[in-house]
Write a structure and sequence with these properties.
Layout: E1 6-16, H1 18-24, H2 27-45, E2 50-54, E3 58-63, H3 70-94, H4 100-104, E4 109-124, E5 127-131, H5 133-140, H6 146-150, E6 155-159, H7 160-166, E7 176-182, E8 186-194, H8 195-204, E9 215-223, H9 227-235, H10 237-240, E10 248-252, E11 263-268, E12 271-281, E13 285-291, E14 300-308, E15 314-321, H11 328-353, H12 374-377, E16 380-381, E17 384-385
Parallel strand pairs: 4-6
Antiparallel strand pairs: 1-3, 1-4, 2-3, 4-5, 6-8, 7-8, 9-15, 10-11, 11-12, 12-13, 13-14, 14-15, 16-17
Helix pairs in contact: 2-3, 3-8
């Protein structure tokens, strides 16, 4: 029987500067550094993506999900890049090694190419391989002229097919229009995000998180579902409305991308609760300012944290910020009602999610490349271990 074609999103995370890095440094720590950074990025991409295979200086990942919220997919790509940059910074601060590889690791960077199309799965040499025109196309798109246009090596390059599948407006989101001509395939319309600029904005963003220690009131729940799934059901209006008691939830981001400044209008009958996003750190937490439909009601600030829980569960913490003394009585009363409503809603969410989705570890995929961390513990000088 011929393999069945499946629709999929494809992405390739490719290390920029890989060839020059390996050619100019000692291999002793170089491969360990590469493995560490690649491991960081691939872990951050799972889910929604799963690993197809490593390809030298790149990781090829994909997902066959029928629909993916455009904001969630972009968060996954940019979040993976941000984690690489944080890891690079922390490693450079922690490492005392003076070998050429450790000194030159700052020359490494990442670029991502994302496409949507069809593929078939084939067994070759005892392992599963992805094949098809669109698999070829996403690989061909790695060779492009985007770096010259944006003036940097760190970018996310989306095919127009991926943009249309995600249902986003690339112009409204500030993506840069681009075009490449691929032999045999022809002209391809593309959209680029400058990840270096995105990282600078992310790194400079003021954080507003209600911590456990600072919380005035905190609700906690464990849900037997993947963390990314719980995040999606708390942030995507269409998923949120499936379990939360609201007639309609309308999202207004101004540019079609979730983040600070996004407003959610939760309508129940003639009453509307407005939540404004104050801080956004997917998929770890987000902080909102809540305005209730009550004259003179104070704005309530809450952080919703989605964390790794015990035994593979997802741990949810809803942390309410300390109110001003004059507002405590109001917040106390509102918190009691909110706790009752949320406890009931979480019961519905649990019945909807628990046991319905396989754990990521149950999905067969290649093992991640692991770093031994030797470059942090075993200094190398002039190619000789000290």
């Amino acid at each position: 029987m011929l393999p069945k074609a499946e629709a999929a999103y494809f992405a390739i995370a490719d290390i920029s500067g890989y060839t020059n890095f390996l050619a100019a440094v000692e291999l002793d720590h170089a491969q360990d550094i590469i493995a560490d950074f690649m491991d960081t990025v691939v872990k951050a991409l799972r889910p929604p993506f799963r690993l197809a295979k490593f390809e030298g200086d790149a990781a090829f990942v994909y997902t066959t999900a029928e629909t993916i919220d455009g904001s969630l997919l972009q968060d996954a790509i940019e979040g993976a890049y941000f984690k690489f940059r944080r890891r690079l910074r922390s490693v450079r601060q922690a490492s005392t090694c003076e070998c050429q590889a450790c000194v030159a690791m700052g020359d490494l960077d990442f670029k991502f190419v994302i496409h949507h199309g069809e593929m078939v799965k084939q067994k070759m040499g005892g392992r599963e391989e992805l094949a098809g025109r669109d698999v070829i196309l996403v690989h061909r798109l790695l060779k492009n002229t985007v770096a010259e246009k944006i003036g940097g090596r760190a970018y996310a390059l989306y095919s127009d097919a991926a943009i249309r599948a995600m249902g986003v407006d690339p112009v409204a989101q500030g993506l840069i229009a681009h075009r490449e001509t691929i032999d045999v395939i022809g002209d391809v319309t593309l959209w680029a995000r400058d990840l270096e600029a995105a990282w600078r904005q992310e790194d400079a963003q003021t954080r507003m998180q209600v911590t456990r220690d600072d919380a005035y009131v905190m609700l906690e729940f464990d849900i037997a579902a993947p963390r990314q799934t719980v995040w999606e059901f708390f942030t995507v209006p269409g998923q949120w409305q499936k379990w939360w008691d609201a007639d309609t939830i309308v999202e207004d981001s101004g540019k079609g991308r979730r983040g600070p400044g996004t407003r959610n209008h939760c309508m129940h009958g003639n009453h509307t609760v407005v939540e404004e996003m104050l801080d956004w750190r997917p998929p770890d937490y987000f902080t909102v300012g809540i305005t209730l439909p009550i004259p003179g009601a104070p704005r309530i600030v809450m952080t919703r944290a989605v964390l790794d829980g015990p035994n593979g569960m997802t741990h949810l913490e809803l942390r309410v910020a300390k109110p001003k003394p004059k507002d405590r009585e109001f917040v106390d009363g509102a918190a009691v009602k909110y706790a009752e409503r949320m406890t009931k809603a979480i019961a519905g969410l649990r019945s909807m999610l628990e046991g319905k989705q396989p754990a990521l570890d149950a999905v067969e995929e290649p093992a991640l490349t692991r770093s031994s961390g030797r470059f942090l513990t075993e200094p190398v000088k002039s190619g000789v271990r000290g």
